[in-house]
Amino acid sequence: MSEHGVRIQLDRVTKQYPRQPEPAVDNVSLDIPAGELVVFVGPSGCGKTTTMKMINRLIEPTSGEITIGGENVLALEPNELRTRIGYVIQQIGLFPHMTVRDNIAVVPRLLGWDKARITRRVDELLELVGLDPSAFRDRLPKQLSGGQQQRVGVARALAADPPVMLMDEPFGATDPITRDKLQNEFLRLQKELRKTIIFVTHDFDEAVKLGDRIAVLAEQSHVAQYDTPGRILAAPANDYVEGFVGSAAAIKQLGLMHVGMLTGLAELSATSGLPTVRSRENARDALDIMLRAGTSHVVVLDEQGDPRGVIGFEDIAGLLREEVSRVGQDA
Ligand SMILES: Nc1ncnc2c1ncn2[C@@H]1O[C@H](COP(=O)(O)OP(=O)(O)OP(=O)(O)O)[C@@H](O)[C@H]1O
């Protein structure tokens, strides 16, 4: 049984770097519910990384209070704090001369786990992130692809089963296909683990796909809007947030609708040759599949891979029309 997430609270947190005219993070308050994945999205230099690193005290706040699970992080010993917080960064930061096993075992070793327990945990984590332990545990990082390295980075962050994970652009350096795959695997993992996760990205689409909530940050980490992806897309709080949402809000909304949720699946008839989509995939994926296959219909498969019905281009166009009129009414 893994440890689920705990609540994180930032209360009027400020970071003033020495010799800088303005604070990098100014008076930020955020309440992050236990077990949720919250995405920080904002332009380069707005203070996302500084805000995140204050939570595990890689950067010390100038003022304000941060609690995890009700405990004041400033009152905890930094090394003790970091065993409770997994940390994944874009550059991955695997130690190049250490095997995959030893990289994953860094924190368990610090915690004094015995060898057998570490071996069991390493193999369990490799399985969890989709890497065959016998094929991967003795490799060096340079013998892995970028996506595989990123999975090892996630496994390492999860090693001591921390309730909190901080992830700073973890998939930023991967190509779009690998990135999509890593995102999907990560969503599957988080469904099971229910850690409290803060995830930093520049990419608003990634924020919509992954976040239970999104904090849209402006200069000095001022919170421009903090809400669910659906509500941010439907009702951006101001022009700044609107700029992130972009002009295709309705299409992005499709990304939040599972194909399996779509009602009125047409009868299965003459479906041979049509492309397929899994019911847990979203309406945007279904549209994408149809456009790429050059067909006007796609077969929806259930979890067992059996056909459940067919949806057509028109069904999705209808959804889009509904969304556009709803967004219009909210505005
Ligand atoms: N050690 C430091 N000393 C002085 N200023 C710093 C330091 N680290 C960061 N800053 C400044 O603080 C501001 C916020 O930086 P931060 O790295 O938190 O932004 P970010 O939103 O994570 O940016 P990016 O998306 O480009 O990584 C920037 O203006 C940056 O130049």
- Residue ranges: pLDDT <50 for 5 or more in a row? none
Count of discrete domains: 2
Characterize the quaternary organization of these chains: single chain
Helix-strand topology string: EEEHEEHEHHHHHEHEHEEHHHEHEEH
Q: How does the major sheet shape up?
A: 6 strands, mixed
Structure summary, number of beta strands: 13
By DSSP (H or I, 4+ residues per run), the number of helices equals 14
Shape designation: globular
Lateral strand order in the biggest sheet: 6-7-8-3-9-10
| CATH arch. level architecture of the largest domain | 3-Layer(aba) Sandwich
What do we call the CATH homologous superfamily of the largest domain?
P-loop containing nucleotide triphosphate hydrolases
What distinguishing features does this structure have?
331 residues; Rossmann fold; CBS domain Like; six-stranded mixed beta sheet; four-stranded antiparallel beta sheet; 14 helices; 13 strands; binds adenosine-5'-triphosphate; CBS domain; ABC_transporter-like_CS; transport
Structure description:
The structure is a single chain. The protein contains 14 helices and 13 strands. Strands 6-7-8-3-9-10 form a 6-stranded mixed sheet, sandwiched between helices. Strands 2-1-4-5 form a 4-stranded antiparallel sheet, covered by helices on one side. A 3-stranded mixed sheet has the order 11-12-13. β9 and β10 form a beta hairpin. Helix content is 38%, strand content 21%. The mean pLDDT is 86. It is of the alpha/beta class and 331 residues long. α5 crosses α7. The structure holds adenosine-5'-triphosphate (ATP). Adenosine-5'-triphosphate (ATP) binds next to α1.
